[in-house]
Amino acid sequence: MKNKTRLMTAGVLSALMIFAAACSSTKVTSSWKEPEVSLQPDQKTLVLALVSDKEGGLRANMEKEMVEALRQKGYKAASAYAEYGPVAFKGLSEQKAMNKIRRGEFDQVMTIVMLDKSKEKNYVPGRTSFYRPFPPYYGRFWGYYSYMYDRVYEPGYYTTNTKYFLESNLYSLRDKQLLYSVQTETFDPSSAARMAVVYSQQVIKDMSKQQLISRQ
Known about the structure:
alpha/beta, six-stranded mixed beta sheet, 6 helices, globular
């Protein structure tokens, strides 16, 4: 009986771990690319995130991971946070900001913007199971009583899940045109660092799919 209980417990824990991993995810909801456009390895991209200060280190993480993801694909990239500090271009006119960027010899700017953040409250009921009138629970009185007592008197609880909606745009500095845009939805990330990693992976994957960058 103990072995059966342990196996059942292990199975439940494994299922919960798989479910949690599936829930904490990022997916592309829409994307667009200017036809016949592709990035060249000799071009340099500035990654600039616009994220509320309330999100802690998310901005720096987002820029860092996107830069790393682009570099791994063989493209030149740099973080605006690392290059210009936390205030970047705050208070500057368009001309002064553009001159500042051009001095860094950048050809494109990729923005990462948090469009929205929402919270959903969900009720998780107490212990439930499928109806099955056979051992180990129904076979003995005490086994049945103990199981049903926990099921009846174990209260449910509320969980709060968070959704992040982000958008990345890639702009050409030479002709000031939008080259690429992608929107994503992230559900209940485990941390800002993990969210930045998964987000960058999904965007790079979509950029490859759109043939904006090499598939290699």
